[in-house]
Amino acid sequence: MKRSRFLRQGLALTALVSLLSLASCKDQAATPAPGGGDAPAPVAKAPEGGGGGFDAPRKAEGKLSVTLITNNSADFWTAAEKGLEAAKTELTDCDTGRMTPAGSSPTHADQKKTFEDAVAKNPDGIAVTPIDGKEFASVIDDAIAKNIPVICFDSDSETSKRLAYLGTNNYEAGKAAGEAALKLLPNGGKFVAFVGNMSAQNAIDRYKGFQDATKGKIEMLQEPFQDQADPLKAQRNVQDAITKYGDKINGFLGIWAYDGPAILNAVESAKLLGKVKIITFDGAPETLAGLEAKKVDAAVIQKPYEFGRLSAKLLYLINRKGLKAAIDELKPELEKAGMKVDGNKIDTGVTTVTPENVAPFVENMKKLGLKST
Question: At 349, phi and psi to the nearest 5?
């Protein structure tokens, strides 16, 4: 009798588990896809080695729209916008647009709001240069979870699930600036650096590259002055550094695009031209004019035009073919242009411009319709 009772209880338990399993499967099947409709949309899959990835085509046909989100409204981004326009001409079935955080000195919160506004429009891709790469990781991950492809350009968010990084290898760019400084000051010297935010990955990497290239030769008098992307504050910072350190300074390093003009204006006002070296990043119009006039000594110049053009093209191909196939298709074009591809990282490279080679560089810019880069 005992055995018979146990057998009946076991059969009842088995039936109950089966019913629960069927109910669970039914609930999962009824869960709507992120993009709507009956069929489940492709989901982000994290490949080995970290990062998010869309392995299959997300939207093989139909009109696409992609958005580029910058970290501020500096003139530097005009070139990226030109690149976006070029991509729109090349990709006739893809709309492109740029969004910029509100305010003259945007914060992480401002950029997060802009990004979330973009996500609400359900675009087919977003390219972003985060003000704070670590803080922005969860913001990017939320978009990836909603099946929106996100890549980083110019400054990375390595801990996020972003699909790719496209832009300068900022550590190597920092080394290039350091090498330029050593050519100008072979016996070494003392420098002060200026930047918008040291929380940005590009700032961290450039500064580290500069320090490593000049180790034992050039001393940084203090940590970089930060201006929160405010050009007026950037110039005040240079004036403050001159007041604080006086003739101890042998050189100035501008880490973000507008820092070069800020340094030049302050140094000229203090009548220090020719007595100190000015090394900066990017080709703002004032920086290029300073190079032509031999007032700026060197500029490590990136390719923001290509940031815009290639970001749009990569997002387009990710939608049409999947991440790996997209990078494979772009690779011959990238390598022909001297760019380097390492997995899902694309190093667009830099050019060190000096008074000696500035003329042909500016001429090439004009052919692209650019006044700054």
Answer: 85, 170
Q: How many CB atoms lie within 10 A of CB 139?
A: 20
State how far the Cα of 167 lies from the Cα of 153, in Å rounded to an integer. Answer: 5
User: Which one-letter DSSP state was computed for residue 63?
Assistant: -
Q: Are the C-beta atoms of residues 287 and 353 closer than 8 Å to each other? A: no
Half-sphere exposure of 349 (CA within 13 A, CB side): 10
Half-sphere exposure of 274 (CA within 13 A, CB side): 2
Tokens (6 digits) for 166? 């496209």
Cα Rg of the chain, angstroms: 26
Per-residue pLDDT reduced to its tens digit, 160-174: 999 999 999 999 999
Give the pLDDT of residue 53.
Answer: 56
| Listed residue (329, 305, 309, 307) closest to 317, CA to CA | 329
Domains of the chain with CATH codes? 64-168+304-361 (3.40.50.2300), 170-301 (3.40.50.2300)
Take residue 127 and report the two structure tokens written for it: 């390219």
Query: To the nearest 5 percent, what fractions of the chain are helix, strand and coil?
Result: 45, 15, 35
* Residues of the chain above pLDDT 70, percent: 86
Instruction: Give the pLDDT mean for 192-221.
Output: 97
> Residues 84-113: what's their mean pLDDT?
94
- Among residues 333, 304, 303, the alpha carbon closest in space to that of 317 is found at 333
192 in helix, strand or coil?
Answer: strand
- Which ranges of 31-146 does DSSP label H, i.e. alpha helix? 76-90, 108-120, 133-145
What does pTM read for this prediction? 0.79
Q: Are 188 and 156 in contact (CB under 8 A)?
A: no
- Specify the range with the lowest mean pLDDT, choosing from 18-22, 88-92, 236-240: 18-22
69 pairs with which residues across the strands? 99, 128
